[in-house]
Amino acid sequence: MKETTILDKRFREMIPGEIINRRIDDMAEQINRDYAGKDVVFLGILNGAFLFAAELFKRVNLKARISFVKLASYEGTKSSGSVKELIGWNEDIKGMPVIVIEDIVDTGHTLELIVGELKVRKVANIKIATLLYKPKAYTKKIPLDYVGFEIPNDFVVGFGLDYDGYGRNLPSVYTLIKQ
Ligand code: IMP
Ligand code: MG
User: Which of 9, 54, 90, 105 is the most exposed place for a label (fewest CB within 10 A)?
Assistant: First the structure.
């Protein structure tokens, strides 16, 4: 079992990088099929989704643009539940099909806010692609269209996800070892 320390905590490898990359191949293939012939905008949610967004986007063979917005709702290992920041939105997305790219959907607060903003901007339709999904934590009704992995309601890091800013560069997803 691969383990690693980040700051004061121990983490154990949960999803190896090779498995993640293979899953992203499948997700991109499905998106390429679903959007064949369409012009589409991908919208990555910073910071966590930057790595997944890059890996997914380089596998997309559509006429596509990508843009990023930033929202922060997390401090340490517990969701604060309130979203604090929103920056970005320099892309003209009115009337466009949009695929939101998330690293993880936890409570869904972040997602709900993003989807609300997209509706105000009168996009053609919205689909959600997320690398990780915690079904036990999800409190919203927004359907998730492309889900990489469903995971337990535990704190994870790696592949873009952080613990107090660290661990984003781990090529696998690691889960917190509870003491
Ligand atoms: P939500 O708004 O509760 O769905 O949380 C979404 C955001 O919280 C994600 O985009 C992540 O940045 C962060 N987050 C949620 N769960 C975790 C986790 O287990 N590890 C690291 N970040 C997380
Ligand atoms: Mg995030």
Answer: 90
Provide the domain count of the chain. 1
Say which residue the tokens 């003491």 belong to.
Answer: 179
In this structure, what CATH number is given to the domain that contains residue 120? 3.40.50.2020
For residue 26, being part of any structural domain is answered with yes
Q: How far is the CA of 39 from the centre of ligand 1 (A)?
A: 29
Cα(132)–Cα(22) distance, integer angstroms: 14
Which of 74, 117, 178 should be mutated for ligand 1, with most atoms under 8 A from CB? 74
The pLDDT tens digits for 133-160 are 999 999 999 999 999 999 999 999 999 9
Opening angle at CA 44, ends 124 and 156, nearest 5:
130
Q: What predicted TM-score, i.e. pTM, was given to this entire model? A: 0.93
Any idea how long the chain is? 179
∠ CA 43-68-73, rounded to 5°:
95
What distance in Å separates the CA atoms of residue 178 and residue 36, rounded to the nearest whole number?
45
